[in-house]
Each structure stands twice: as structure tokens, then as C-alpha cells.
Design a protein that fits this description.
Blueprint: H1 7-13, E1 30-34, E2 43-46, E3 51-57, E4 60-64, E5 67-71, E6 74-79, E7 85-89, E8 95-101, E9 125-127, H2 130-147, H3 154-170, H4 184-198, H5 215-222, H6 226-237, H7 241-259, H8 264-270, H9 276-287, H10 291-296
Antiparallel strand pairs: 1-8, 2-7, 3-6, 3-8, 4-5, 4-7, 6-9
Helix pairs in contact: 2-3, 4-6, 8-9
Length: 297
């Protein structure tokens, strides 16, 4: 897997000659594009340092994190810097559109990470029926109209349209019931834990190492007692601190096994295991197969 693709590389690779001036200033970056109506090349499995919402039209195979799906006709996909993804067109009738934006674009308008579509281990691909397709197309059409307008506050409108897509997708799936408490402090602790965990990813080099590996490590960094951290996370997520850490490490292990040529020993080291057998036992217990067999699937 290559290093994370940045905005400049995205524009250069896709031969887009115009990079809006907003790329350089405090409001962040936003732009929108058509996918075209001809053959579309596959996108290689990689992370990007920007967010993306894509309307995919046509039969297409999508891979993100350690998951793989085939969309037969229409889908709405959410991409973010934490999760690598790729797609492969399976027919020639490909079209659609997409918008890209940086986290800075929403800096003063809420945290994108609070929404499940931009969290690790959450659903990022939503299959659309004909009615949903029309609804989503209308939102994108408004984006195209707005970005070409002279309205002084058009980027506020564009943010609202992004939020509209986010909420439209989330309403398509059943709500996940949790024991979320109303206390702000508990919610803040869970949010800080997630941010601290995700900040250690992606692993982009076998010399990079995952350091915070235990509940005690996280509790020390958050300046709270380990038991309190465990209690808060269990109440809010239904999982223990160790389970949350292990699940994220397992996800990264699957990504590295499938999309890098690194040896099992290198992967074990980068994920913080002292010895390769410890990693193999960890992986086998949770994935029900060995790292080598998983890589060869």
C-alpha cells in the first residue's frame, strides 16, 4: 500500500488543472466532480488525506478496510482519511459524481468524526434503490448549482448539503442501540479514546509502531483510572477497552496482510507485538485463521 494520497496528487493524477484558491486558506477545501459516462479506471487500494462522498452508478466492486462488496446498480459511498479503499468497475456503464473536502472545511461547524459513516468499522457503502437514487441525485445537483453561483455564503450551503447526504445515508440503516449516557464527561471520554486510538493509524511503514496497546496505556494518556475508562466504554459501546483496541488492531492487520508485501514478522512488529508467534496467536484467535492463510484467500 502506498503512502496516503494528498489533494495535490489527486488533482494531478486526475488531470484536473484547476485547484480552487480555497485549498490554501482557512475555510478548507471543497470541490465536486462528475464521474463521466465512459470507462472508468479502477482506483487502487489506498488512503487519501481528504474526505469524499461518491454516487456510484454501474456495477462495481468496492473494497474498504477489510470489507468487500459488489453494488449491482447504484450506491452512495463515504470515504475518509482513516480507512483505505478501492473500487473496480464490473461493467462499462459507469457514471455518477462525487465531492471532496477537508476536515478543515467543517472545522467550525461540528465534528465529522461523530457520524458513523466517518468512523472506523462502520458501514460506508449504502445501496440505493430508484427512489433513493433520485433523492441523492437532487442533492448533488444542488451542489453543482451552488458551487458555480456567486452567492457569498455558498460554502455554508455546500456544507449543509454534505450534512444532508450524511443524514440521508444514516437514516437508511437501523439505529444502533447503545447505553449512551447523557453526561457530557462520559461522552467526551469515549470520544477522546476513539481519537487517540485512530491517531495511531494508518500504519504506513514497517518501521512505524503501534504504541498504545493496553487499557492502562490509554487511561494514563487520558489521565483517568483504568476502571473508569473500562466502565465508560462498556456503557457507551457495549465493548471493553481491550475489545475495542483488539478489533482495531485486527482490522489494520487484515489491511496490511492483503495490501502490502510486508512479511508477517514486519506486520507483527508494526502492530506492537514483541514476537511474531504472539501476533499469529492473536490473529488466529480472532480471525479463525492464520495470517498466512488469510493473505492467500
Amino acid at each position: 500500500m502506498k503512502n496516503t494520497e494528498n489533494l495535490e496528487e489527486f488533482y494531478e493524477k486526475n488531470k484536473f488543472t484547476y485547484i480552487p484558491k480555497e485549498l490554501e486558506n482557512d475555510i478548507g477545501h471543497f470541490n465536486i466532480f462528475k464521474r463521466g459516462n465512459s470507462k472508468i479506471k479502477p482506483i487502487s487500494f489506498n488512503r487519501r488525506d481528504f474526505f469524499k462522498i461518491t454516487l456510484l452508478k454501474g456495477k462495481i466492486k468496492v473494497d474498504y478496510a477489510d470489507k468487500s462488496f459488489v453494488s449491482e446498480k447504484y450506491a452512495l459511498m463515504f470515504s475518509d482519511p482513516l480507512v483505505p479503499y478501492s473500487w473496480e468497475p464490473l461493467d462499462e456503464n459507469q457514471s455518477g459524481c462525487f465531492c471532496i473536502f477537508t476536515e478543515t472545511f467543517f472545522h467550525k461547524f461540528g465534528s465529522l468524526r461523530q457520524y458513523p459513516v466517518f468512523q472506523a468499522n462502520q458501514n460506508k457503502l449504502f445501496i440505493l434503490d430508484e427512489k433513493a437514487l433520485k433523492d441523492v441525485e437532487k442533492i448533488f445537483e444542488k451542489m453543482f448549482e451552488e458551487i458555480d453561483s456567486d452567492y457569498a455564503y455558498k460554502y455554508d450551503v455546500l456544507r449543509n448539503l454534505c450534512f444532508e447526504l450524511i443524514h440521508y445515508a444514516m437514516k437508511m440503516q437501523p439505529a444502533i442501540t447503545t447505553n449512551l449516557k447523557t453526561e457530557d464527561r462520559a461522552t467526551k471520554i469515549a470520544t477522546l479514546f476513539t481519537e487517540l486510538l485512530e491517531r495511531q493509524f494508518p500504519i504506513e511503514s514497517p518501521y512505524q509502531r503501534f504504541k498504545l496497546r493496553s487499557a492502562n496505556d490509554f487511561a494514563k494518556n487520558l489521565n483517568i483510572h483504568t476502571n473508569h475508562l473500562n466502565k465508560v466504554l462498556k456503557e457507551i459501546t457495549g465493548k471493553t477497552t481491550s475489545e475495542l483496541i483488539s478489533n482495531r488492531v485486527l482490522q489494520e492487520a487484515k489491511i496490511l496482510l492483503k495490501h502490502t508485501p510486508w512479511s508477517v514478522s514486519d506486520i507483527a512488529f508494526s502492530l506492537g507485538f514483541e514476537e511474531p508467534p504472539h501476533f499469529i496467536n492473536f490473529f488466529k484467535k480472532r480471525a479463525k485463521t492464520t495470517p498466512k492463510k488469510y493473505r492467500d484467500l
